[in-house]
Design a protein that fits this description.
The protein has 2 domains: 4-53, no CATH class; 73-203, Lipocalin (Beta Barrel), CATH 2.40.128. It has 4 helices and 8 strands; from the N terminus they run αααββββββββα. It has helices at 4-24, 37-53, 59-62, 197-203, and strands at 73-81, 95-103, 108-113, 117-129, 132-143, 154-164, 167-176, 181-190. It has an 8-stranded antiparallel β-barrel. β6 (154-164) and β7 form a beta hairpin. α1 (4-24) packs across α2. The protein starts with a helix and ends with a helix.
């Protein structure tokens, strides 16, 4: 989200430094220049808003090494838990899972949907550099009422490696404050943003 106050502060500092530089070099700072200040701030806000919402997603821009990869949409994949049943020593079978990613240049939010719960990110970041890209986030998981007796609400973190540009795969691990962990692997994507598990299933 572009902060207009921040843009105004930066523009003011630039004007001040520019004026001081002119004065120190023996020139004359014409205050009439300031009539363009509001125009400059408005223009900067518009350009930065366009960049934050749209321009960074353009294919020619996405080729840049420091530009976050475009992950927006609903992804389908599998969740594999490493939890073992103490009675049988066996773990649960991998299950279908979906993640819904809403993203701008400056922010990213992730919602994961399974047949038993929904989790939503509280902090998230898409990192790119040195040939490696990843999506890392912390989340709060809220299980459905029908499974709360065996799956309580919990916090966790996820780190997914990003493959391809355009992106074709998200794969990595998750950890929770219940001392559980597992793997996530997403390979299918659509542009639509699902609202719940059933709508995500219908998208594919």
């Amino acid at each position: 989200m572009i902060n207009k106050t921040l843009v105004q502060v930066i523009a003011g500092v630039v004007v001040l430094i520019f004026a001081v530089g002119i004065l120190l070099s023996g020139g004359h700072a014409d205050l009439a220049w300031l009539r363009f200040y509001s125009i400059a701030v408005t223009g900067a806000v518009v350009v930065l808003a366009l960049w934050d919402r749209w321009l960074w997603r353009l294919k020619v821009v996405q080729s840049g090494k420091s530009i976050p990869r475009d992950l927006r949409g609903t992804w389908k994949g599998t969740l594999t838990s490493f939890w073992l049943d103490p009675n049988t020593g066996q773990g649960p079978a991998p299950k279908p899972a979906y993640i819904v990613i809403r993203q701008t240049w400056s922010s990213v939010s992730v919602t994961m949907l399974t047949d038993e719960s929904r989790s939503h990110s509280s902090l998230g970041k898409v990192s790119s550099g040195d040939g490696v890209s990843s999506l890392d986030y912390m989340y709060l998981n809220r299980p459905d009422n029908r499974v709360e007796h065996r799956s309580r609400m919990h916090h966790g973190s996820t780190s997914l490696d990003i493959t391809g540009n355009p992106v074709t795969r998200l794969r990595g691990r998750y950890w929770t404050d219940r001392d559980s962990r597992g793997e996530l692997d997403f390979t299918q994507r659509v542009a639509a943003l699902a609202e719940d598990y059933d709508s995500a299933t219908n998208l594919f």
